[in-house]
Structure formats: C-alpha cells, structure tokens
Fold this sequence. Notes:
With 143 residues, the chain is an alpha/beta fold. It has a single domain (3-140), classed as STAS domain (Transcription Regulator spoIIAA), CATH 3.30.750.24. The protein is built from five helices and six strands; from the N terminus they run βββαβααβαβα. It has a six-stranded mixed β-sheet with strand order 1-2-3-4-5-6, with helices on both faces. Helix 4 (108-118) links the parallel strand 5 (100-104) and strand 6. Helix 2 (82-91) crosses helix 4 (108-118). The radius of gyration is 14 Å and the shape is globular. The relative contact order is 0.16.
Amino acid sequence: MSQSDTIELFCQQTKGCKTKYFDYSYDTNTDILYKSYVGEIEYTDIANSWDYAIENNSIPSMVKGFIVDYRNASFKMQRMEHQAIAKYYKDHLDIFGNKRIAVITATPKDTVIPILVETLDDGYMSKPFCTEEAALAWVLRRL
C-alpha cells in the first residue's frame, strides 16, 4: 500500500457517543482503493467520507475498483437510506462509473444495507461479501 490516511468523523451524539472513523489506502499493485470504517456508521458518514476523499484528490484516476470494509463497524440507518447510498454512487459516476464496489460486513444485520444498495446499482456495480479474499477476487474479475 502506498497511500494511507485516517480521518476522524464527527460524532453527532452528545451522550454515549462512540468514536467512529474511516481510513483508506490505495494498493498500487492492484489499483484498488481500500476503505475501512469503525464505529456506528450513518449515511452522512458514508457521504462525507467519500466527499472528503474526492475533494482532497485521494482517489487516483487509475483506480479500478473499491473494497469498503465495515467489519469493525455497524450501520445505524433507517431501512430506506440504502437509496441515498445508491444515489450517491450514481451521482458520482465520474469516480464510481463502471467500477466494482465490494462491501465487506461481519454480521447478517449489516449485510442487509449492501444487499439493498446492490438492487439499485446503475452505472456501477456493488456486491456484499464476508471475506476480503472473495471481495478482492470479485473486484479484480474482468467486466
């Protein structure tokens, strides 16, 4: 991995707030951007973290795909918020267009959101996984 950053996300709760953050790294051998989350993640955390990466030119133009790891996180979202995630990817096809976005989760409860997002894929491809190896194989598979 050649680039790596850890960015703190703002916690909007005042009582019982757990630390949450994301980090990302770019693998120059595979041209895959890895992004990991920790903590209870809301839709705004997902959008803000991608916005940060885009605004700071942290996503190389030659990126071939993405592996987003939620194994140390959990989704704190309403059921229909998956539509906002899909819309975000579609609204940013200059970054995600014709790319694969593998989403790794650790629990069945957290797999629901990526499954629902996958049903709305349009201009990009997403798919949930439970292992990094399977996610990597899928992202590297030729389109």
